[in-house]
From TrEMBL, chains A, B, C:
It catalyses: 2 Fe(2+) + NADP(+) + H(+) = 2 Fe(3+) + NADPH; 2 Cu(+) + NADP(+) + H(+) = 2 Cu(2+) + NADPH. This is STEAP family member 4. Its cofactor is heme b; FAD. Residues 15-101 form the Pyrroline-5-carboxylate reductase catalytic N-terminal domain. Keywords: Copper, Endosome, FAD, Flavoprotein, Ion transport, Iron, Iron transport, Membrane, Metal-binding, Oxidoreductase, Transmembrane, Transmembrane helix, Transport.
C-alpha cells in the first residue's frame, strides 16, 4: 500500500522513462517535460538519437534508462519488442506502458500488450495512451480526444499511469484487466461502428425509393407522353426521396421503444432480456434519428429553393389564371407548410439535445421527456404534414400510375403504425399496467415476496 | 488517515457489497464486475436470487454479505429499509451508499439517506448515484449523464465512494453534507426548473399577440369587408407572432443586465445585493435568449416558404403591373431582408456559443464579449430590421385599424428602450463611472481604507 | 510523503483561509463553505468586515487567520501585497494561492505570483483560480468555465490546491512550474487569439471582393448605361461576396494540409519540422473552416430570400415569355442548386463535428475521416457548384466587363489548385510513398537501423 502511494506522488516530481525516440516517443517526452517530469529516453544508439529528442531530456541506453525510473513508456513498434527480452531482469517490478497500435484488425494472434507481458513477465504491463495521436500529444488535449483509456492487471500500476495522464491534462478511464487490451488496440482502427447499420438502412431506402420514383415519374412520363423530364432528377426527385427516407427513419427510431413496451406488457415483467435484435436496434436509435434529421434538413433546403428554379420560374410566367381562388386549398397548403415547419423545428431541437455536452446538463427525466414525448410529437407533426400533402389525392385514381401508389403514401405506413401503437400504449388502462411493470411489478408474482428484488428507478 | 487511504485503494482490488438484486442492484453489480471489483450481493433469499445476478458475483444473506466488504450499496426501496435495523451491529463503521429515489417530491418527511442514517447510526451513510438510471449504469457513462453527485457527513466515506465512481467511469462531485440529500433525491424528479419562467413568458406573449393579431387582421377583415381570410392563421399570423415574441424575448434577455448597471450606478457601489427578482431574472437570461432564437428560427422558415404558398403564387399571377419600379422601395426591402439575415446569423452564433462544450473553450472575457457585445449588436440589427419593415407605415393612419397599432409597433417598444439605456451606459462619462464601480470603487467610500476589500476581477 | 497525503485529506475536513474580503474573496469563501470547508477570512479590520462575509465564516486579523489553516487564498490586488511582508514568518511552509489578475497585459515586469513568492520566500506559492470570475464562483461551475488552471514549484502544494478545486466542482489542470504564471495571468485578458488571423483574412477578402464587385456591377452599370442599381448592394452584392469568401476560406483550410504532404514527399521524411508559417497555418485550419461555414450560411439565407425581394417580384410580373423551355438550362440550374445543397449539408456536418463535445466522442480515425475525406468532398461539391453557376459564361466575352473576370471566376482559382494537388496525392503511386513516409519510412535511410526510431501511429 505504502509503496503504491509513494510511487504515485513521486513519479510527479521524479523521472519517467520513454523507450523509443520516434514520433510518438518524442511527442510524449516533450509533453512530459512540459508537465514538470524529468524524462529519460532509452535508445539503442543514444548518441545518434540525442539530436532528435526534446530539449531537457536525457538519452541513455535501454538498460541504463530503465534504472532511472519506475514507469517506462514503450513507444516502439511491436515487431521490435524482442529487444526487451534481455532487459527482463532490469524491468522486474517496473510499470511498462504499452502505447502501440496496429495497422489493421487481427494483425497478430494476441494483443500487443499481452505479447509484451509474455516477454517481460516480471513487469507490470499497462495498456494505454494508444488512442492518442502524436499530434494530439504534442498540441495538448485541447481539441482532440481528451479521454485516455487504460487497462492492466495491477491496480497500483494503473494508478501510477492514471496519475501521469491527469498531469498531462487527460482524463483517464480504467477499462479493466489486460484482456481488454485487444479492444483498446482496435479502437483507433474503428470507423463509426454504431453508424454502420443506420447508414446502410438510409442508403438502401434512398436507393429503393429513388428507382421507384424514377420509374413512376420520369420513365412513366417518357413512356406514356414521350416527355423528357429527366432534369427533374436533380431537385424534384431528390426532394421526394429525402422526406420519405427521413420519415421512415424517424419511425424506425421510435418503433423499437414501442415494441419493447408491448413485449414487456405481453411478458408481464421487465426482468427478462429483450431479444438480441431488439437490443441492437434500441442501441442505434440515436443514429437513426440523427440520419433522419439530416434527410429532413436536405428536404427543407430542397423545398426552399423551389421558387428559384428555372423550371418553376418558367412555369410561373406560362401559367394562365383559369381557376378561382380556393380557400380550402389555401388552408390545406398553409397548414401543410406550417406543420412541416413546426415538425422541423422540433426535429432540430431533438438534434441539439443529442449533443453530448447538452445531454450532460439534462437530468434523466428531462432527457426522456425530450427524446420520448417531444420525439413522438415530432413524428406526429411530420406524419400529419405528409397526410396533408397527400390530401384528397389518396382517393383519385390518377394518382396510381401503373397501379403503383406514390412514394409519400408508402412512407406513411410505418409512422402510422408506430403512432397507433403508441396511442394504444398511452390509453389509461395500458399505461397503468406498463408503469407498474416498469416499477418492478411482475404479473403472477404477487404471491412471492418482492422485497429486495424491486428496482429503484421507474 | 492511514485507514482512509487504505480503504480507498483496497476497495479497488477487493470486494464491494450490493444489497438488493433488483434492476438497479444488478446493473450496478455488473458494472462493478466489469471495472474489476469483486461483487457480493446481499439478498433475503440468496438461493432463489442467484439465477438473476450477473455472472461472477456471489450472493449471500445480508449479514454474511455485509461482512465481506467495507462499502455497501443499498439498492433497495426506502419502504424496505427496516430489514437493516437488525443488521445495525454488523454495519457499524461500514460505508452505506444510498441509491434510492422517490416517485414524487416530498413523498417522505425526511430524505431517504437521512432516514437510513437514523436506522443505522453507526454506519457512514453516503447519498449518491441516484441520478443515474439502471440503463445508463448498464451501458456505461457514454451518452447519459456522466456526472455523479454525492453527499455525506464523513469525508473518508465520500472519498471511498468517489474512488469507486471514478473507477466506473463517472466523474463524482461532492455536494457537501447529508443535509443536501433531499436535494439530490429531488434532482431526478425535476423537469427543466430553469426553463419554466421563460417558457411561461413565451407562451403568454405568443397567446396574447396571437389573439391581438387575430382580431386586427382576420376578424377586422371579416367585419369590415366580409372577407374570410382565416386561412392566414397558419402561416401569415404565425409569421407575425414568431418575430414579435422573438424580439421581445431577446430584449427581456438584455434588459436585466442594463437595469443592474443602472442600479449599481444609482447605489454607487457593487457591494449590495440586487433585489431578488432581478437576481432570478438574470439567472434565466440564457433560457430567454435561447427561446428567442427558437422563435427567430421559426420566423426564418415561415418567411422562406412564403413564395411556395398557394396564396402567394395565386396572387402573383393575378397581379397587374400598375406601378413604376421604385428604387427607394427596392433599397428598403433589400436592407430589411439583409439586416434580418445578418441579425439571424449573429443570433445563431450566440446560440452556438451557449452550448456547454463551446462555453468551456472560451475565456471569461471572450464569453462576455460574445454574449454582451455581439448580443446587443444582434438586438440592434433585429430592431433595425423591424423598423425598416414598418418604414413609413408608422405615419399612415390606415395602419391603425380600430385605433390599434400593429403588432410590430408594439414589439418595438421594449427593444428600443433597452437599446437607448445601453446607449446611455456606453457614453464615455457613464461608462467610466460604471467601470470604476465594477473594479470595486464605492461612491463616498474614498475616505475609508479600501485596501483588502477590493475585488480582483473587474 | 506522509505529510503531503495528510494535508491533502485534512484540508477537506479542516479550515481554509482567505485573505481579502472583496468580491472574489467573499464568493470563494461562500463556495468553500458550501463544499464543507471551514473558512477563516483574514482582514485588516476584522470587526468592520464581519458584516460582509458569508454566514458561517470567521474573520480574524491576518496573522491570526494564517495560523488557522495550511492553505491560504490571497484574494487581494497585487498593489496591496506588501502587507504580507511582515507576515513572512507566520506564512513559512503555508500554501499561498495567488488568485490575482491584471487589467492589461505586461502591466508589471514579473507575474503577480512570482512577485508574491519573492515577498514571502518561505511559502509555497501556487497560481490558480484566476481564470474564474467571482460570478462563476458564486453560481458554481455549471455554465461558465469548469476548468481551473494552476501552476507552482511544489508538487505537494499543487496537489493540495487541486484537491480543493475538485471539491468545489472544478476540474484542475496542472500547467507546470511558477514560470507559467504570467501566461495564466494573461489568459483572462486574451480575446480569441486563434481567431485573429482567420478573421483578418475573412475581412480582407470580403472588403476586396466587395469593392471589386461594386466597380464591376454597380459602377459599371452607372457609367455605361447610366442606370442606378445601387440598391443591389444590400442583397445581390452581399450574396456574391459571401459565397466567394466562403469558397476561398474553405480552400485555405485544406491548402496547408496538401502543402505539408508535398513537403514531406519532397523531403522524403516526416521527421523534419514544417516551416513556422505552415505550422501556424495548420493550427488555424479549424477557424478558417468555421468562418467559411459562416459565410456559406449567410449565402444560403441570401439565396433563399431571393424570390421574396421586391425587385425580383417586380421583374417576374414584367417578364414576357420570349424563349422556349430549354431542358439543358433546367438540368444545369437544378444540378447547380442540388450540388449547392449537398455541399452545404456536408459543410454543416463538418461544423457539427468541430464542436468540442462531438470531437471527444470520435476516435482519431473517425475524426480524420470526417475532416479530411468529407472535407475535401465538400470542397469538391462547392467548387462544382460554382463551375456550374458559371457554365458557358466563361467563354462569352460579355462576361468580361472592363476586361475583368467576374468574382466567381476569381474565386475558383484556389479551390481548383487545391483539388488538383489533392488528386495528385491520391494517385496510387504518390499515395503509397506518402503512406510509407507517414509510417516512419525515410528516403535514403534504409541502410540505417531504423529499429527504435519508428513511429507507432501511421
Amino acid at each position: 500500500m505504502q509503496k503504491t502511494f509513494h510511487c504515485r506522488i513521486s513519479t510527479t516530481s521524479e523521472r519517467v522513462c520513454v523507450f523509443g525516440t520516434g514520433d510518438m516517443g518524442r511527442s510524449l517526452g516533450l509533453r512530459l517535460l512540459q508537465a514538470g517530469y524529468g524524462v529519460v529516453f532509452g535508445s539503442r544508439r543514444p548518441h545518434s538519437s540525442s539530436s532528435l529528442i526534446p530539449h531537457g531530456a536525457q538519452v541513455l541506453g535501454h538498460a541504463a534508462a530503465s534504472q532511472s525510473a519506475h514507469l517506462i513508456f514503450i513507444a516502439v513498434q511491436r515487431e521490435h519488442y524482442d529487444f526487451l527480452v534481455p532487459l527482463a531482469n532490469q524491468l522486474k517490478g517496473k510499470v511498462l506502458v504499452d502505447l502501440s497500435n496496429n495497422l489493421r484488425k487481427n494483425q497478430y494472434p494476441e494483443a500487443n500488450a499481452e505479447y509484451l507481458q509474455s516477454l517481460v513477465p516480471g513487469a507490470e504491463v499497462v495498456k494505454g495512451f494508444n488512442t492518442l495521436s502524436a499530434w494530439s500529444l504534442q498540441n495538448g488535449p485541447s481539441d482532440a480526444n481528451r479521454q485516455v483509456y487504460i487497462c492492466g492487471e495491477s491496480v497500483e500500476a494503473k494508478q501510477a499511469v492514471i496519475a501521469v495522464a491527469i498531469k498531462l491534462g487527460f482524463s483517464a478511464l480504467d477499462q479493466g484487466f489486460l484482456s481488454v487490451a485487444r479492444e483498446l488496440e482496435d479502437f483507433p482502427l474503428q470507423l463509426f461502428p454504431q453508424w454502420r447499420l443506420p447508414l446502410r438502412i438510409a442508403i438502401g431506402l434512398s436507393a429503393a425509393f429513388f428507382f421507384y420514383l424514377l420509374i413512376r415519374d420520369i420513365i412513366y412520363a417518357y413512356v406514356t407522353q414521350s416527355k423528357d423530364i429527366s432534369f427533374r432528377i436533380m431537385v424534384s426527385l431528390a426532394n421526394k426521396v429525402c422526406p420519405i427516407v427521413s420519415l421512415i427513419m424517424l419511425s424506425l427510431c421510435y418503433l423499437p421503444g414501442v415494441l419493447a413496451s408491448f413485449l414487456q406488457l405481453y411478458r408481464g415483467t421487465k426482468y427478462r432480456r429483450f431479444p438480441d435484435w431488439l437490443d441492437r436496434w434500441m442501441l442505434c436509435r440515436k443514429q437513426l434519428g440523427l440520419l433522419a434529421l439530416g434527410f429532413a434538413f436536405l428536404h427543407v433546403l430542397y423545398t426552399l429553393i423551389i421558387p428559384i428554379r428555372y423550371y418553376v420560374r418558367f412555369k410561373a410566367t406560362e401559367q394562365n389564371r383559369t381557376t378561382q381562388f380556393d380557400t380550402t386549398t389555401a388552408w390545406r397548403g398553409d397548414s401543410y407548410l406550417s406543420l412541416g415547419i413546426l415538425g422541423f423545428g422540433l426535429y432540430v431541437l431533438l438534434g441539439i439535445t443529442s449533443l453530448p455536452s447538452v445531454i450532460n446538463t439534462l437530468s434523466w427525466r428531462e432527457f426522456s421527456f425530450i427524446q420520448s414525448k417531444l420525439g413522438h410529437l415530432t413524428l406526429l407533426l411530420c406524419t400529419a404534414h405528409t397526410y396533408l400533402y397527400g390530401w384528397n389525392r389518396f382517393l383519385s385514381s390518377s394518382t396510381y400510375k401503373w397501379y403503383t401508389p406514390p412514394g409519400y403514401m408508402l412512407c406513411l405506413v410505418l409512422p402510422s403504425v408506430v403512432l397507433l401503437l403508441k396511442l394504444l400504449l398511452i390509453t389509461p388502462c395500458v399505461d397503468r399496467t406498463i408503469t407498474r411493470i416498469r416499477q418492478g411489478w411482475e404479473r403472477g408474482a404477487d404471491q412471492r415476496n418482492p422485497k429486495d428484488s424491486q428496482p429503484l428507478i421507474p
